[in-house]
Task: structure prediction
Amino acid sequence: MAEILPIKAWRYHERFAANIEEYTSPLFDVVSPKQRQVLYGNPYNSIHLSVPLGENPAQRAQLLLEEWKQNEIIRQDKIPGIYVYYQYFKFPGQEEESVRKGFIAQIRAYDWEEGVVLRHENTIAKAVNDRIELLRATQFQSSPTHGLYEDPLHLLEPYMDAAIEDPIYELEDYQGVREVLAVIQDVRLIKKFIEVIANKKIILADGHHRFEGAITYKKEMESLNPLHTGKEGYNYHMMYFTNALSKNLRILPTHRLFKDITLKEEEIISRLENWFVVRRLNEVDEIMELILQRKWAFGLVFPENAYKISLIPERIKEFDEQVPEVLRTVDLVVLHYFFIDKVLEIPMTEQRFSEHIDYERNLHRCLQKVETGNASFAVITKDISMNQVLDVCKSGYTMPQKSTYFYPKTLSGLLFASIEESEFKFPYEAFLP
Result:
């Protein structure tokens, strides 16, 4: 089902290796404004390629990329490889270190309708367009998306464990996560990775916007190429693969922020009572504990007041019949349908385009934005289970945008993948079974 290839990767020149953490960057949607300022202050940080600034950011990235190549800021590996990528982390109160094990390779940019790469959430239209523009200008990928495969036997783990003993990089990132990257260039071993993934479907965990951009770009290039074969670089996309059946996969919540909402707090609470049980809280700090064990429960935070809201159980029957059964019990679907659609009157079909909705993964920053007036109010959510993600993906339906936050996030800048034909081209037939 899923066709993968090794990557003929671009990486920072060896002279940068000792301080590689200074050149990597978080994915843009998890970096704070203060962190962002520091990253942009380093002229060689990968953020200049992944999220360029300026009036024409895509063109700026393209010019910078050419400069980096000419000055050997980055260099391309001579032969392709499978890049093993381990992330070691701890949560507060956790004694033993967890590790998420995976590898980075190229995957064919399968269209959604092909049913090989399965998505679980909607995208935000503007973010997709930005990714497409950047890909058109640079033909370069500065960070992998994150895909899950299901392997109960963990067949690839012994090869990854052996490779990670001889790392290319080992660093501590902005999250306090220990990041380790290694490479497998043995043809025999690479064939095993290709064989294992060949009979899998891939569940897209993170990077829906970048993957959708890759699909669009592939279609554009195919239409312009009368000699299209399907083997060109534009057919492929860089992805980080992890086993969905691993015990160390973590999904954290993403909270919802609302701005420029004309409804006053009193009116929102009045409308809510038609659908939800509303309980005013004495302390905002109580929210996560109070909603954690309760189905269809959320925190609602205004500048002066905070509430716990829980859907009235009988109301679940009032879902539109077009909403499939597999989605009806998912907390975030309940939130987007009964609160954002019914109470705030922002229709489900318009929410992914709405400028009134923003997303924040950090609870402290979320509450701070409400307190300082940068948001009208916030809805605090809790994480969804891996089983729910798998069920939704396999059903063919999608959850609302920003439904999942797989922790830890991957880094940009550890390696890059070019789909420009002269840089991508290689006799990949040597790796095929």
About this structure: The radius of gyration is 22 Å. The first strand starts at residue 4 and ends at 5.
